[in-house]
Write a structure and sequence with these properties.
Layout: H1 2-18, H2 22-37, H3 42-59, H4 69-88, H5 93-105, H6 111-130, H7 138-141, H8 195-207, H9 217-225, H10 230-233, H11 235-244, H12 249-277, H13 282-287, H14 318-334, E1 337-344, E2 352-357, H15 358-371, H16 377-396
Antiparallel strand pairs: 1-2
Helix pairs in contact: 2-4, 2-5, 2-11, 3-4, 3-6, 3-12, 4-5, 4-6, 9-15, 12-14, 12-16, 14-15, 14-16, 15-16
């Protein structure tokens, strides 16, 4: 009998070890949920990630006495993310319920499973209530913004669609950890006519033109690769960090939560600096060079960037605030380097790039926006600085989220 019981115990332990990684399972479920039925506004989707995984991290803070640790942790993580996503993306309720049943079917029935699911659901309700009315819904994010009067250096709608300003409402949203949207407001952009300003425009004029004769095929590929949403492009790097993390389940959930909390606050801070300075985009500057107060520049009314300019001011680059914050969080919580991983982009079909550092992603983003013709290098570098500052603040103050 003792031999038989030992065999059963060994089989149960082996089955537990072979159980799929629930953190990765629900990471992929979160990504699929948002890809399929998420919001049209990037920061709203970042908010969904942040709320769901903050609830999970809180649910994993402590394991009740007398229950199997892994059973409780798996149930708590699944219960938290499931409950939050049901509330935030109700169109995917059926798929999320199926995913939860699949996870729970692998966990033995009993107190660990029951208490884990209940704790996860409770934490989801608490976090959701704390973020109610935070101004990160699509209507608030894209609240109407009046076009400013035309002046040298001042943003105007850009060709070809001349669309109204987007994401201006982010600066009025409630951050997770920032004290206020302008807490890390950047210094002003280079003055019109300054040496830095002239160098910025000269670079974009030459390398960012649709018909550039100096931009190499590799540079064009880089511009196209990073043209897509940073939110989408960084989903895989974060998954790589989560997959390779040797940390506890609670710390792995914190990695995902803090990444997106930092990115929500970064997007709020980005909007603040963009709309505080209202710096015109390169296409406007180049076509209006006779109005910038610099007698050494001449207008080029037919100049066209390689890629269509997004509908918001130049300074700072939002792609680069995102990459700066992402690099800071990934470096702090997953290390500077990692084993090689591959990345693809929907805006560069057929291209696969390989990376071993998070910094390489940031550097490519800086270059890409110049080579696309849609940002100046000063706006790109300032964006990285702002993103890092906000992420550092998030990491320093993360304990406030777990009191």
């Amino acid at each position: 009998m003792m031999i038989a019981l030992s065999a059963v115990t060994a089989q149960a332990a082996a089955a537990s070890e072979e159980r799929p990684d629930v953190a990765l399972e629900w990471y992929d479920t979160t990504a699929a949920t948002i890809t399929t039925a998420g919001s049209a506004t990037q920061v709203t989707n970042s908010r969904t990630w942040a709320i769901s995984w903050l609830a999970a991290a809180r649910a994993l803070r402590a394991v009740p006495a007398g229950v199997p640790r892994r059973d409780y942790e798996d149930a708590a993580l699944a219960g938290a993310v499931h409950s939050a996503l049901i509330a935030l993306v109700p169109a995917r309720t059926q798929e999320l319920d199926t995913a939860l049943r699949r996870t729970l079917a692998r966990i033995p029935d009993g107190p660990a499973e029951d208490r884990g699911v209940a704790t996860g659901a409770d934490q989801a309700r608490i976090v959701l209530a704390s973020r109610d009315g935070d101004g990160l819904d699509p209507d608030s994010v894209n609240a109407p913004f009046p076009v400013p009067a035309p002046e040298p250096g001042v943003w105007q709608p850009t060709p070809p669609s001349f669309a109204p300003a987007a994401q201006a409402g982010n600066r009025n949203a409630r951050p997770f950890l920032l004290e206020r949207a302008d807490q890390f407001r950047l210094d002003p952009p280079p003055a019109l006519g300054s040496a830095r300003y002239r160098a910025d425009l000269s670079e974009v004029l030459a390398y960012g033109a649709a018909d550039s004769t100096v931009r190499t095929p590799k540079q064009t590929e880089t511009a196209s690769f990073w043209l897509g949403s940073s939110f989408t492009l960084y989903t895989e790097p974060l998954r790589v960090a989560l997959t390779r993390s040797p940390r506890s389940p609670a710390d792995r959930a914190k990695l995902v939560a803090l990444f997106h909390i930092a990115l929500v606050d970064t997007q709020i801070a980005t909007s603040d600096s963009k709309y505080a300075y209202l710096r015109w985009r390169p296409v406007t500057a180049i076509r209006s060079a006779d109005n910038d107060g610099d007698p050494t520049t001449s207008p080029d009314p037919d100049w066209t960037p390689l890629h269509t300019t997004p509908a918001h001011p130049d300074y700072p680059s939002g792609h680069n605030t995102y990459s700066g914050a992402a690099e800071e969080v990934l470096t702090a919580l997953a290390g500077h380097r990692t084993a090689p991983f591959h990345l693809t982009s929907s805006t560069a079909p057929g291209v696969t790039r390989t990376y071993t550092t998070w910094h390489a992603l940031t550097q490519e983003n800086i270059d890409a926006r110049v080579w696309s013709g849609i940002h100046t290098r000063s706006a790109d570098k300032a964006g990285v600085t702002l993103g890092r500052l906000v992420a550092e603040h998030t990491l320093r103050n993360a304990k406030l989220l777990f009191r």
